[in-house]
Design brief:
The structure holds 2 protein chains of 2 kinds. By secondary structure, chain A is an all-alpha fold. Chain A is 54% helix and 2% strand. Chain A contains 15 helices and 2 strands. Chain A starts with a strand and ends with a helix. Chain B is of the alpha+beta class. Chain B has helices at 84-91, 226-230, 239-264, 276-289, 293-299, 306-319, 322-332, 335-338, and strands spanning 24-32, 37-44, 46-48, 54-56, 60-62, 72-80, 100-107, 114-120, 125-133, 140-149, 167-170, 174-177, 190-194, 205-210, 214-220. In chain B, β1 (24-32) and β2 form a beta hairpin. The longest helix of chain B has 26 residues, at 239-264. Classes of the chains: A mainly alpha, B alpha+beta. Chain A binds chain B through residues 10, 78-80, 82-84, 130, 134, 162, 165, 167-169, 202, 205-212, 216, 247, 249-254, and chain B through 1, 12, 14-16, 101, 103, 105, 107-116, 118, 134-139, 146, 148, 156-167, 324.
Chain lengths: 254, 341
């Protein structure tokens, strides 16, 4: 299946475009595959995003999780297609710049250029689709996007996950979501899940976690959480391990 | 571990005993188009070194250059460790006979797709079979061979790997370029610093084509402040890396012109084909500029039009984003310095 690609996004997204709170789709867009079948699907999706732009701007980040699920459900892409940054540029600039401006505009700053023209993990639409892609559990039936919604309440967790190569290990992402944002129980604060992701990253340098079964990965994540000794979580049997203690544990040092 | 923003070298420091570059990998792959096999590939990740060690063969398969529509890469990877007993002695806690696994870590950063395929270590050799779907990957795929612990040690010992699937041996990675790599600083070309002769003491670079097989970019080390900038492999966006990218974009345009000239004017012996290097140069240039390779060759022929060649240079500058990268450098300069008036 062909997908539309915007070839001249860089020349469209200039200072004037970025400073506009209500940018219009450009008339000088150069689009490859502009008659692709998927364009009809995109037009339907865009309508829902544009509806958001009429809403208040106080809690825009809170819309991300739900829109991620919606976008992923509607837009059936392979990973290869979704990795084409010019595809997301097409949606963000040609089809729905109004949503990008609404979501990312700040009173004292322009819309960051990367939300229109950046790589997929920064693009306003790409980041949502990929967040849903790697947090979705296809075997969970009607609850397949449960983690997308729960863990999507944290902008920091979303960012730290999809901007990180660890997110390609779906079992690991599911375990991290369950640890940081359990279906019931205390949710981690930003500094706590930030520390957890750091510890997992450190472990990936020396450990081939991808060679483990999902249930083993889950145990590893739970053991890391135990070592962090977060209030409300089961206490560690030893004293709280700070960062240095954790690294010493990695090398077998007491 | 945090690296300094201006670090010019990235080196792994392991917290425990590990054998680096000890896993040999033999990769046999077949590109499959669904109804037919399209192309085969066979490389090893190592070459013999002069001191009986291994040397990185920089094994790469440029699938994107084949210009075919494919659905799957079917791969067999065979692992070998030359001294399995020595490896075990070096990396396992003494007195503990922990089983080992060969593991191949597959990673595609562009789609974040990743997985590991494993087989028993046995007596130091093994193989795995797997396939890569076109639908899952973009850019590059890295195949990293490893040896890992198959179980956790009963007793953790300082300075030794302490958990299941801890890496205890590594090998040089093999890369599959499924899409054209972005133009990065010095990418795909050997870069060497050298003291230029007195009569060209102020030249920045020079190009060598060695035996019609290899390209080398020589950089003049008479100006020492340049080296830390141009050698930087940092991906952090700062003044130094922006300057590096801008300098290389200027150099790259010129280099491509020289390479195109050499390729266009290469006349193979009767019955022989154009050397692989020149064939690759013309194919890459043809793809990047969306020009027929015969048209490129005509631009460098004896009857060629200088103005048309100049236009090609301008197109190359556009492809390499020379203006944008130069502007990035200007924007990084503090306003009171860059403003001028």
């Amino acid at each position: 299946m062909d997908i539309p690609l915007l070839e001249n996004g860089l020349s469209i997204v200039d200072a004037a475009f970025l400073s506009s709170q209500n940018p219009s789709p450009p008339s000088n867009a150069e689009v490859a595959n502009e008659d692709a079948e998927i364009v009809g699907v995109i037009d339907g999706i865009v309508g829902e995003f544009i509806k958001l732009t009429g809403k208040k701007t106080e809690n825009r980040p809170a819309t991300d999780a739900g829109m991620a699920e919606f976008l992923h459900r509607e837009l059936k892409l392979t990973l290869y297609q979704a990795a084409q940054r010019k595809f997301w540029h097409y949606i963000a600039i040609v089809k729905c710049p109004q949503y990008v401006a609404w979501r990312w505009f700040k009173a004292d700053k322009n819309v960051p250029k990367t939300r229109y023209i950046g790589p997929w993990y920064l693009n306003a639409f790409g980041r949502l689709w990929w967040w849903a892609e790697y947090t979705r559990d296809p075997e969970a039936g009607k609850d397949q996007y449960a983690r997308t919604i729960r863990a999507g309440q944290s902008q920091e967790f979303m960012k730290n996950t999809i901007e990180n190569s660890l997110c390609g290990n779906r079992a690991l992402v599911r375990s991290l979501c369950d640890a940081a944002f359990p279906a019931s129980g205390i949710q981690m604060k930003d500094e706590q899940h930030r520390e957890l992701v750091k510890r997992v990253n450190a472990m990936l340098v020396t450990t081939a976690l991808d060679a483990l079964q999902p249930v083993e990965i889950d145990e590893v994540v739970k053991s890391l959480v135990k070592e962090m000794n977060i209030p409300g979580e089961p206490e560690a049997t030893q004293k709280t391990l700070g960062r240095k203690g954790f690294l010493n544990r990695l090398v077998g040092r007491k | 571990m945090n690296w300094k923003r201006d670090s010019s070298e990235l080196r792994a420091i392991w917290p425990y005993s590990i054998k680096e570059n000890a896993v040999k990998l033999d990769v046999e792959a077949r590109l499959d188009g669904g109804t037919a096999s399209l192309e085969d590939f066979h490389r090893m990740n190592w070459s013999p070194g002069t001191d009986a060690g291994l040397v990185d063969a920089k094994a790469v398969w440029d699938i994107y250059l084949l210009d075919v529509s494919w659905t799957e890469v079917i791969v067999r990877c065979s692992f070998v460790v030359d001294d399995p007993a020595g490896l075990k002695n070096d990396v396992l806690p003494h007195g503990q006979d922990i089983p080992l696994l060969f593991s191949l870590l597959l990673r595609c950063d562009s789609t974040r797709w990743r997985r590991a395929v494993t087989c028993p270590f046995g007596s130091g050799s093994g193989s795995v079979d797997f396939s890569l779907s076109r639908a899952d990957i973009a850019g590059d795929v890295e195949l990293q061979p490893l040896v890992v612990l198959a179980a956790s040690p009963t007793t953790a010992i300082a300075g030794q790997a302490s958990r299941k699937v801890a890496k205890v041996a590594t090998g040089f990675p093999v890369y599959l370029h499924v899409d054209e790599p972005p133009e990065g600083p010095g990418r795909g070309i050997e870069v060497k610093w050298q003291r230029f002769e007195d009569n060209i003491a102020n030249a920045l670079y020079s190009l060598e084509i060695i035996d019609e097989q290899k390209v080398r970019l020589l950089l003049n080390n008479r100006h020492p402040a340049l080296q830390p900038v141009m050698d930087s492999r940092s991906k952090v966006r700062n003044e130094k890396t922006l300057l590096r990218d801008s300098l290389f974009s200027f150099i790259a345009g010129d280099v491509w012109l020289h390479l195109a000239d050499a390729a266009a004017n290469s006349v193979p012996e009767e019955g022989e084909e154009l050397p692989d290097l020149y064939d690759k140069i013309l194919r890459a240039l043809s793809r990047r500029l969306e020009m027929d390779r015969e048209d490129i060759k005509l631009l460098f022929g004896s009857d060629s039009d200088t103005l048309e060649r100049a236009k090609l240079h301008t197109q190359l500058q556009n492809y390499l984003s020379v203006a944008e990268k130069t502007e990035d450098v200007v924007l990084a300069i503090p306003a009171k310095v860059a403003g001028g008036d």
